[in-house]
Amino acid sequence: MTSKEYSLKKNDLGAIGIGAMIIFIALILVAAVASTIIIKTAEELQQRAQKTGDDTQDNLGGKILIQGAYVSEETAGGGSADEITLIVQLSSGSDTTLLADMEWHMACDDGTAVAGVNAGVFTVATDLDGTALGATASVDAGETFLVPIDTSADCTPQVGDNQEMRVFIDGGGDTYASLHYNDVNPGSSII
């Protein structure tokens, strides 16, 4: 009998297939990590854009527009304004806001080195139809109302004075107005 000798041949094809499979799996893992990073970055950018949009809406929508102002009461002897009235409107896009969440600051120069400041909260107001509004009353967007401001505490304005005023809504924007007192008789326009 003749014996056949079998020899094992070296076959590298299987090793190449396993190497290709390892590289393929590594590429899938790298793609998964890269897509996770891209998705996370896109989500963070979307959240930042949403927050910026909300902040912008609060600043523009949550704002009081000053339509006008006039002297509503002068001192008994004349010469200065004890009370002014602001004609204000809650800007479009604003949420319904309580009067107690609205405040004002008025700065003036009384001739000393330090500027005086009057400040307060809108505690009372009157709707254009004559309805009285208290501090717990709420105002809707686009609603115009009158707010009396007592100026007799500090910085009592006189003829020729200029005052800077800011009106704020809690959590919203602010409005700046420059008040010029050419006359302090009741009904005199100061804006």
CATH top-level class of the largest domain: Mainly Beta
What is the distance, rounded to the nearest whole angstrom, between the alpha carbons of the first and last residues? 124 Å
Strand order of the largest sheet: 1-2-9-6-7
Number of domains: 2
Beta-strand content:
25-35%
> Which percent bin holds the helix content?
25-40%
Label the CATH architecture of the largest domain.
Sandwich
In the predicted model, the low-confidence regions spanning at least 5 consecutive residues are none
By CATH's scheme, which homologous superfamily of the largest domain applies? Immunoglobulins
Structural class: alpha+beta
DSSP summary, beta strand count: 11
- Total number of helical segments? 1
Q: Outline, from the CA principal axes? A: rod-shaped
In the CATH hierarchy, the third-tier topology of the largest domain is known as Immunoglobulin-like
Explain the layout of strands and helices:
Layout: H1 13-61, E1 64-74, E2 81-90, E3 97-98, E4 102-108, E5 116-121, E6 125-127, E7 132-133, E8 138-139, E9 144-150, E10 162-169, E11 174-180
Antiparallel strand pairs: 1-2, 2-9, 3-8, 4-5, 4-10, 6-7, 6-9, 10-11
